[in-house]
Write a structure and sequence with these properties.
single chain, alpha+beta, 3 domains, eleven-stranded mixed β-sheet, two-stranded antiparallel sheet, about 50% helix, elongated
Length: about 475
């Protein structure tokens, strides 16, 4: 206790040096513990983007590509899947629910997602969160769209605004769908996930705005191309003025101009006289139901999410999908793919740990320099202590104890600083970066770091202690000029 009392009084007598040393250790510890806490928070936030989904299914391709494009809105899908394939797997006995997704369009760089009401009913994210509307209503028609919280804030959009979506992604977008504008019917509540940076419409809306497009070219541009045919017209339909004038001036339209293409067929294929039975005459086209002529739900899907009736069925269903030869598919387990993705970017974690370790090392070296440099000033103090009966070992223990106290106080101050910053910045990080950092007690790794810093501090104290141990009594009493 006497040694502890002496150490505390010695540190109190050197207030400025002690405070600066503690601050240096505290900053190093706060950075070390803070990086680990943020890393854990980012990982949990990353994994919490999607919950409760057993499989993500898309066209044959890489698992990471499917995960990033379907869940995080990054990159492009590997391909498309047909509605027949989707309906077949949705009716599988092991499947409980499905969420179809159609990607490929954007609005000022924000992804547009075509889906159904199943998305709002079954999609879950962190802590069993659900996608809800904060203002307005969900989309129901082919001209309705709801926008994420970030989209509404950044682009200053409100319910009732009319927008024109872009065909393609930012930087690769071809042109806007000016012929099929959308109306914002709702703004989603903040989720702090990629949902906040996306727009959601119906599958019918995705199909309707692509109606008449051919290889990424809108109908208006197709007519402007050299050698393009006049626009299609059904019997009894109102003809565009230019076509009507041509019909009146040249004795009417040729029957081939009234041929309607079958769903999914281009005009050139439908009007080719060599196709024989594959063409549809104007009379027969007039008898077809309007749903077959304008089936807005037949736009190809890029992926779909599904939940199984029994979680144990997930692996068997995944194997069935990946080995099915009807249409090549890739089915992934979200949790497994997220873990693989996290491991693939683990080099960034290692780099952050190396940097923080170097900062802690600098802090400990600063403490060593502070303790060692004060020995010259404390030579008389040490000599007086030895003259009063304190042996060299006690003086060495005193210096080691001072070093340990500095590292302990610095570690405590660093932890307090970390939690203060978490308390203040948790909401800011969630709102601005979509990263949820939970405020929890230090984990095993953090305690290991703190213990390592304290032990390193004690070891650092051995250097000035060894130096003081070797100093002779007369060395401290001799006046040096």
């Amino acid at each position: 206790m006497l040694t502890l009392s002496l150490a505390l009084r010695s540190l109190r007598n050197r207030r400025l040096t002690t405070a600066l040393t503690i601050a240096s250790i505290a900053l190093s510890v706060s950075l070390l513990v803070g990086v680990e806490t943020v890393r854990r928070g980012i990982r949990e936030s990353f994994a919490g983007t999607i919950r409760g989904t057993d499989l993500i299914v898309g066209a044959r391709g890489g698992s990471q590509q499917l995960l990033l494009s379907s869940v995080f809105g990054l990159g492009s899908p590997a391909g498309t899947i047909t509605h027949e394939t989707y309906d077949r797997w949705a009716a599988h006995p092991a499947v409980k629910w499905t969420i179809p997704l159609s990607l490929g369009d954007s609005y000022y760089g924000h992804r547009v997602v075509g889906t159904t009401s199943a998305f709002y009913e079954h999609y879950r994210f962190r802590n069993d969160g659900r996608v809800t509307v904060a203002e307005g209503r969900l989309p129901t028609g082919d001209r309705d769209v709801v926008i994420g919280a970030d989209v509404a804030k950044r682009l200053k959009l409100a319910v009732g605004a009319e927008i024109e979506l872009t065909h393609g992604l930012r930087g690769t977008g071809i042109m806007d769908h000016i012929e099929h504008p959308f109306t914002v019917t709702g703004i989603l509540a903040p989720t702090f996930t990629p949902i906040d940076r996306s727009l959601f419409t119906t599958l019918e809306g995705i199909a309707a705005m692509h109606e008449g497009w051919n290889n990424g070219i809108p109908p208006s541009s197709q007519m402007a191309m050299p050698g393009a045919s006049p626009p299609l017209a059904m019997p009894g339909a109102d003809l565009p003025p230019a076509v009507e004038q041509d019909a009146l001036g040249n004795g009417g339209l040729d029957s081939s101009d009234l041929i309607a293409p079958a769903p999914g067929m281009a005009r050139d294929d439908a009007t080719d006289t060599d196709q024989g039975d594959t063409t549809v005459s104007a009379d027969s086209a007039a008898l077809l139901p309007s749903a077959e002529l304008h089936d807005h739900t037949e736009h190809a899907l890029t992926s779909f999410l599904l939940g199984t009736k029994n979680r144990f069925e997930s692996l068997r269903l995944q194997r069935e999908m990946n080995t099915d030869n009807t249409e090549p598919l890739t089915a992934i387990l979200p949790a497994v793919s997220l873990t693989e993705l996290w491991h693939s970017i683990g080099y960034a974690e290692d780099g952050a740990r190396i940097i923080t370790g170097a900062v802690v090392l600098v802090g400990l070296l600063g403490m060593l320099v502070a303790l060692y440099s004060t020995l010259q000033e404390r030579r008389r103090e040490m000599a007086i202590l030895r003259s009063l009966g304190a042996g060299p070992s006690r003086i060495a223990r005193l210096l080691v104890l001072e070093s340990g106290l500095l590292s302990i106080l610095g570690a405590i101050a660093g932890v307090i600083l970390v939690y203060a910053l978490l308390f203040v910045g948790q909401g800011l990080a969630e709102r601005h970066f979509g990263i949820y950092i939970p405020i929890t007690a230090p984990g095993k790794v953090e305690w290991m770091y703190l213990g390592g810093v304290i032990i390193a501090g004690l070891l650092v104290g051995l250097v000035p202690a060894w130096r003081a141990y070797r100093n002779a009594l007369q060395d401290g009493l001799t006046i040096r000029l």
